[in-house]
Amino acid sequence: MTVVERREIALVDLLDRLLAGGVVIKGDITLRIADVDLVRIDLNALISSVNAQVPSPFEESL
Amino acid sequence: MTGLRYVYAVCRPFGTPLQAQLTGVGGEPPRLLPHGDLVAVVSHVPEGEFAEKPLRANLENLDWLTAVARAHQGVIDALTTVTTPLPLRLGTVFRDDSGVRTMLEAREEDFRRTLDRLEGRVEWGVKVFLEEEREPRAPAPAAKPASGRDYLRQRRQQTRSRDDAWQQAEIFATDLHRALSESAEDSRLHAPQNPTLSGATGRNVLNAAYLVPRVKSEEFVERVDRTKDGIPGIRVELTGPWAAYSFAGEESAGKEEA
């Protein structure tokens, strides 16, 4: 295979898969944590917290 | 020992034992929890971090999330060397082993069907970026606009060039996605990545995942490689092979996305 560079996997690629992919278990038996909406909200919160900590190097024009 | 059960994946039973030194979330070794003809891969996690309330809070802590995501991925990676795992979403937690067994029983049919569908397949990620820094062919230096009208004209031209570049990138991405979908059994479109989180330069135009039989991976990778020198200002990135995270849910109705 030509392109299998085993660099460290980028976190963002991992989160695409671990927070938006994977089997979602629903049901009363579990703690019902793996919920699509919950995860979407969390990721947004996370991104805004990252934004707050690390100001973008690029000027936001308009 | 008390604690909750974190579930990484569901698999068919496999003969090979897990690597002895393999650790999962929180440094705990994962173990196999067989039930019928399925196996859940689980480890103990502390209630202080993984009960519903702390988990909600922890999911918003980037360091914590990173550690859990890497550990989860490490276990899935190890599993892919011995079987085709069906990965569960990050943060799937049960109170005890019997909760996990009940879940396996309740979802038995789904799991079997999905495991059959994914057997011997891997996922490849393909992203297309439009380099925004690249200033499109602006009309020669034109150091300072001589007047307000000149300024506006320059701005309009720049905007038009940017729109052209954007349109070109969209066409490129659409064509690429169509071509790759033909070489793949299934595809998924992820949301474009936020540059703050990815640190990538340029604008993410396509963020797609393709389900490809392991034996056809080389062909698929070569196909992606061939597109890489296509158009200046457009960058194609390949990641994988991944376990089939993006295809663990219900099967898409055909290839309508393509």
Automatic annotation (TrEMBL), chain A:
Entry keyword Cytoplasm: no
Annotated Pfam families: Gas_vesicle
Molecular functions per Gene Ontology: structural molecule activity
Localization of this protein: Gas vesicle
Key words of the record: Gas vesicle
Main location: other
Membrane-crossing segments per the record: none
Recorded superkingdom: Bacteria
Cellular component terms per the entry's GO annotation: gas vesicle; vesicle membrane
Similarity comment: Belongs to the gas vesicle GvpA family.
Identification of the protein by name: Gas vesicle protein
